[in-house]
Amino acid sequence: EESAAQNFIRAIISEDLEKGRHTKVVTRFPPEPNGYLHIGHAKAICTNFGLAREFGGVCHLRMDDTNPTTEDVEYVENIQRDVRWLGFDWGDKLFYASDYFERLYAFAVELIKKGKAYVDSLNEAEIREYRGTVNEPGKPSPYRDRSIEENLDLFERMRKGEFAEGAHVVRMKGDLASPNMKMRDWPMYRIKRAHHYRTGDTWCIYPLYDFAHSLSDAIEGITHSICTLEFDNNRALYDWFVENVDVPARPRQYEFARLNLTYTVMSKRKLLELVKGNLVRGWDDPRMPTLAGMRRRGITPDSLRAFCEEIGVAKTNSTVEVEKFESCIRADLDRRAGRVMAVLRPIKLVLENYPEGKVEEFEAPLFPDEPGKGGSRKIPFSREVYIERDDFTLDPPDKWFRLAPGREVRLRYAYIVTCKDVVRDPATGEVTEIRCTYDPETREGAAQAGKKVKGTLHWVSAAHALRAEVRLYDRLFRDERPDLVEEGQDWKAGLNPDSLVTIQGAAVEPSLAAAEGGQHFQFERQGFFFVDPIDAKPGAPVFNRTVSLKDSWAK
Ligand code: ATP
Ligand code: MG
Ligand code: MG
């Protein structure tokens, strides 16, 4: 079922090539530079660039920058960086819709001259009212039958800046009785007195989406224009523009389901609101569904591509469970992340029968389950080690295989230890230190090396521990479907207050002093961690939790 869905655009392209309708496939990815790219865009990038690659064609990267008020060069630069990071290359095919403003203007003049477009002087509310409803045909605007000369004159004067915003719009002349509202004289141009980040103040009229998008596709010779399902109704309008304007190419639009993920939002407007409201630390906050955030969290482009491939290209909208994405991330990091020991919330464990001042070193492989892969490092061991506070309890429940008074556990790569006593804070009663003995015969190569105990704990020698900051990232929302919160309701109410927990004094093994920004590790028993590429300093790493080892949210 999935492979059929995955192939519907592939099948169309194959047939077009076989039947000679096209000799070369040209697709495009057309982001509006009004925000950072998110995982939904990754889906569109993988689809468009992936299909071009598969069929030996090309994919254009086009900045769909026809709306001056929201666009910025910062976004243009980050979009390019993100597409490259995902592993795709547009070669010399980088385009800007704003470069077509002059040609688009000429196309509008052409439509006016053909009697297929007109300048309307109704205001927005009137236009909406005249358009009618699905059950009731629209009424013609009193300006619909202006002469071609008058339309040309007004359009030129709109361009010259003679009118206020909203005074006039240019509309295509469609069918006021069409069941498709988009075909009821949809607007093509509006007056907007705004500075454009590329064209400056050259223009005070700007083309609207359907007109600009379809004709930009035609200008570039796009063969298959792939967009998301909401644009289903726009297809007739898309076709109308490319049929009624004299353009050399005849692109066609195909729609596929947009990607939605649980526990996050993907609307750029909402993501911008989170950034502006300081609810996250920026577009690249590791909790964001943006590619910049994912990169910083330690999610690799390989796992994003694998995820996009796995979910396929569907024809009906659905929301993918984030667990599916997380399992792609784990599968990828499992291959690349060396295993190390880090104690996030340390408590001291003292070995009463271990000589003071003695230090041993244990050789530990980075990939214990794959001999020969990744090498090993030496881990110092001494009389005092840190273990995880959570790995000790005074009052063990059933099936507790970790440490408790009188219990035995193995310290990974080292010895079996037995808990003899605890030290408590006299004021609070809180356990501040665990007192144990160790059995020297249980180290590797010794007589009791093979002795079985139920629990194995990670640890770090106290004297050798490197202190590090660890950032435990979790889902941005507690609410499974924050995207479904109705307009006017507070979608931010579902934010997860514990989406970031920062630990300052984690004790990590000393080999991590050499960790560099951008490296992946598995902290044994904890999860996959990534050295923050921005905040980590030499000798003072900052670790971002990319994902826990298994789905701790599982029901
Ligand atoms: P928003 O509605 O949040 O502003 P957008 O879809 O308008 O997002 P664009 O920059 O215009 O954002 O999107 C560029 C391309 O990425 C479009 O072709 C769009 O169809 C595609 N795209 C955007 N979001 C998704 C998604 N969630 N799943 C798949 N494709 C997407
Ligand atoms: Mg948009
Ligand atoms: Mg858009």
TrEMBL record:
Its EC number is 6.1.1.18. Its main location: cytoplasm. GO terms for biological process: glutaminyl-tRNA aminoacylation; glutamyl-tRNA aminoacylation. L-glutamine binds at residues 64, 209. It catalyses: L-aspartyl-tRNA(Asn) + L-glutamine + ATP + H2O = L-asparaginyl-tRNA(Asn) + L-glutamate + ADP + phosphate + 2 H(+); tRNA(Gln) + L-glutamine + ATP = L-glutaminyl-tRNA(Gln) + AMP + diphosphate; L-glutamyl-tRNA(Gln) + L-glutamine + ATP + H2O = L-glutaminyl-tRNA(Gln) + L-glutamate + ADP + phosphate + H(+). One of its GO terms (molecular function) is glutamine-tRNA ligase activity. It is an enzyme of class 6 (ligase). GO terms for cellular component: cytosol. A motif ('HIGH' region) lies at residues 31-41. It is found in: Cytoplasm. A motif ('KMSKS' region) lies at residues 265-269. Keywords: Aminoacyl-tRNA synthetase, ATP-binding, Cytoplasm, Ligase, Nucleotide-binding, Protein biosynthesis. ATP binds at residues 32-34, 38-44, 228, 258-259, 266-268. Heterotrimer of A, B and C subunits. Monomer. Allows the formation of correctly charged Asn-tRNA(Asn) or Gln-tRNA(Gln) through the transamidation of misacylated Asp-tRNA(Asn) or Glu-tRNA(Gln) in organisms which lack either or both of asparaginyl-tRNA or glutaminyl-tRNA synthetases. The reaction takes place in the presence of glutamine and ATP through an activated phospho-Asp-tRNA(Asn) or phospho-Glu-tRNA(Gln). Belongs to the class-I aminoacyl-tRNA synthetase family. Belongs to the GatB/GatE family. GatB subfamily. This is Glutamine--tRNA ligase. It comes from Polyangium fumosum. The lineage of its organism: Bacteria, Pseudomonadati, Myxococcota, Polyangia, Polyangiales. The chain holds residues 11 to 565 of 776 of the full protein.
